[in-house]
Design brief:
about 450 residues, mainly alpha, two-stranded antiparallel ribbon, about 75% helix, about 0% strand
Length: about 450
């Protein structure tokens, strides 16, 4: 590809410009947009937690939100056990500097995401070469889902920054031939992953994946491998320990949050059980939560006196029983959810956030805007995934397999962790890890095209 399109001088202004364009189209500073678009779904709780951090100096909830079917939300001044702390702290820092306006967080996220794009380029240039890295960074800059959610009060953009930094730490470790500071490098990797987990608990099992990966890669140097994984695990545990101790002291259980157990039972299992019970998903969800309550009562415990964090142990065990009872059916629903995450166009999200028509539940038909952008989104996905498939094949013969295997594992981890629900925004953490393959694939295609052109030119000249 022409050099001017594959340099940071072009990619970063493009990345920043596209995100600012969506920001200006949304007009998030308008009160109606703030209340009807920005502060919706999970965002109001993050906003309230940040405000309470500034007002009361504690991680306190005063909201009425939270998953349905649970205890009433805490009143003002009660500790919150639903969300992990780093994203509310990030919002509180922005509010403290720029005022309590959600659009300021969106503006900072746009700058942060542009920095993430630059970091991805620099990391992949070291790992794969300049042109595959530039193509991957260009696709990151153009990705419509990342562009859209950079203007949302949600964890995705901050989480993307942390996981890309984690990738950079690992690439630096394998590219640096010296071993004197390797343990410190893996300790830094553990701290970064701990920070990512305190933004989104979805990454809490990543250290286990990395431990197995490092033990495999370093299998011929077992002392180095053991020191590396010990440093990673200890640093990760240290990063999480203050929050775990806070939850043990406050709620009676050393767990990050109850949302994972609730999602597994009330969303994933409920979706698989609803057709079997000939119920809608909400009714199946209520039945499953009531079954968990009966289990607590059988144990001599009063559900009304338990925190949601304590209840989550019962939710998780009950969910796992249903999964193990029919793992094939659960696996099929899980695979369908992964497919929706990867291939859903999410046109409703674009229409809602860009205010292009009525997208309420009562209006199930697609708007003209949704029909208009669907081919563009589909084309982008096809081009991206086609390059990734080609890059996986080509890169296996031409690139450092350690980097490729890690990127493949992390992409699969984040896609598979989304569950049966299949919400398209849950794909975002996987994007930086499949784009390296897209960069390799389209770089290879461009090289072949140039070679054919050169061959025709030589023949014509002869």
């Amino acid at each position: 590809m022409k050099g001017r399109f594959l340099s940071l001088r072009f990619i970063l202004p493009l990345c920043l410009g596209l995100r600012l364009t969506v920001f200006l189209v949304m007009q998030p500073w308008a009160y109606s947009v703030r209340d009807q678009i920005i502060l919706q779904n999970d965002s109001p709780l993050y906003h309230r937690l940040a405000c309470n951090l500034l007002d009361y100096g504690g991680f306190l909830s005063d909201g009425t939100g939270g998953p349905p079917g649970l205890n009433p939300a805490p009143v003002k001044g009660q500790p919150d056990d639903l969300r992990t702390p780093l994203y509310p702290l990030f919002i509180a820092a922005v509010y403290g500097l720029l005022g309590r306006v959600p659009w300021a967080v969106c503006a900072v996220q746009i700058l942060l995401d542009t920095l993430t794009c630059a970091l991805l380029f620099l990391i992949l240039r070291r790992a794969l070469g300049a042109r595959p890295a530039a193509i991957a960074a260009l696709f990151y800059a153009l990705d419509p889902f990342i562009i859209l959610y950079s203007c949302a009060l949600l964890t995705e953009i901050l989480f993307l920054f942390f996981v890309v930094v984690a990738l950079g730490v690992y690439v630096a470790l394998i590219r640096d031939g010296r071993h004197s500071f390797r343990s410190l490098g893996y300790a830094l990797l553990g701290l970064v992953l701990g920070g990512a987990t305190l933004i989104r608990p979805i990454s809490q099992y990543l250290p286990a994946v990395l431990v197995l990966f490092v033990l495999y890669v370093e299998r011929h140097r077992w002392k180095t491998a053991l020191l590396s994984v010990c440093a990673l695990v200890v640093a990760f545990a240290l990063a999480l320990s203050p929050w775990l101790m806070r939850n043990e002291k406050t709620f009676g259980r050393a767990s990050l949050t109850y949302i994972g157990a609730w999602d597994l039972l009330a969303l994933n299992v409920a979706m698989t059980e609803a057709p079997e019970r000939k119920l809608d998903v909400m009714t199946a969800q209520s039945d499953l939560l009531a079954e968990a309550d009966r289990w607590m009562i059988a144990d001599g415990r009063n559900p009304a006196e338990l925190s949601n964090l304590q209840k989550s142990a019962y939710w998780q065990e009950l969910a796992l029983r249903y999964v193990m009872k029919d793992p094939l059916r659960f696996g099929w629903y899980h695979l369908k959810g992964m497919g929706r995450v990867l291939f859903s166009l999410g046109t409703g999200d674009f229409a809602r956030m860009l205010r292009t028509g009525n997208t309420t539940a009562e209006n199930t038909g697609k708007t003209p805007f949704q029909w208009a952008i669907a081919p563009l989104l589909l084309a982008f996905l096809i081009i991206t995934y086609a390059g990734a498939v080609a890059g996986l094949i080509i890169g296996w013969r031409t690139q450092d397999r350690r980097v490729l295997i890690l990127c493949m594992l992390l992409a699969l981890y984040f896609v598979s962790a989304t569950g049966a629900l299949g919400v398209v925004r849950l794909k975002l953490p996987a994007i930086p890890f499949y784009l390296p393959f897209t960069g390799i694939g389209w770089d290879w295609w461009w090289e072949r095209r140039q070679e054919r052109r050169s061959g025709r030119t030589r023949i014509t000249a002869t």
